[in-house]
Amino acid sequence: MNEKNFEYLRDQVKYSGFGEGLESQLKENINRQPPEFSLQHQATFGKDELNSSLHFKRSATTDMYFFNSYMASMKQEQATEKMNQTFYVGKDNNITLKEGYNLMSGRAVNKDLTNKEGKIYNAWLQMDFKQTDSAGNFKLKQFHENYGFKLENELAKHPIKELQNDQDKTKLMDSLQKGNRQAVTFVENGSEQRRYIEANPQFKSVTVFDSNMHRLGNRQSQEASQSKSKQQGQKADQSLGGDDGKDHHSGKKAKKEKGMVIGQ
């Protein structure tokens, strides 16, 4: 057995989000030297089940194996059918198990990606459930930096308590960039309310849910934002002695939306 190849694959599987539980099966299969093999992995996220089949293939010229892809099959609590998606594994642009789950759940994931010229760029990825490729996989939409979505700016529009602390703010942004639906505390009219939020780059916003995971409409979110703005305005009036009477919003032009591409 190629020991270095085994160690590389073991770490690759681990850091792709599948943990260490497949190590012995991986070693056993490499020892048997089949042309290709698959390993099965089960995970639960809340009440959702995600079963994955990890595919390995031996080189045609050496004894080395490659972790080529994993096929994820998700069964959500309320769904009647399972959803399947294959994620390909290579040197760059890999999707971890948790990121794959978040994408299959319709959420967006922020990644540093590498283009064909080897240059690194940043983009939000989100599944396009209306388009599939020749293999039956849902295509991934990309929202590049010049598309105009700024997570930090959108978060600032909401009365989120965690934004008041730099460490909590960093943890919140990291979680949202991984595609998680994150619990936060809204401070509205002096009282605290549990809310859940997720990034929505396509619509350049943050989607808000109440404590029962019911999505709040734009009007409800705007009311919370207006409440925050009103409180900030009152503080500003107290410190500056009132409004200067100028219209700071006039003369702004609508910006064109650009930077979105659809690819595999």
Automatic annotation (TrEMBL):
**What segment(s) does the record annotate as region Disordered?**
218-264
Q: Where are the compositionally biased (Low complexity) regions?
A: 220-241
- Protein origin, superkingdom: Bacteria
Identify this protein by name: DUF3945 domain-containing protein
Q: Which organism is it from?
A: Dyadobacter arcticus
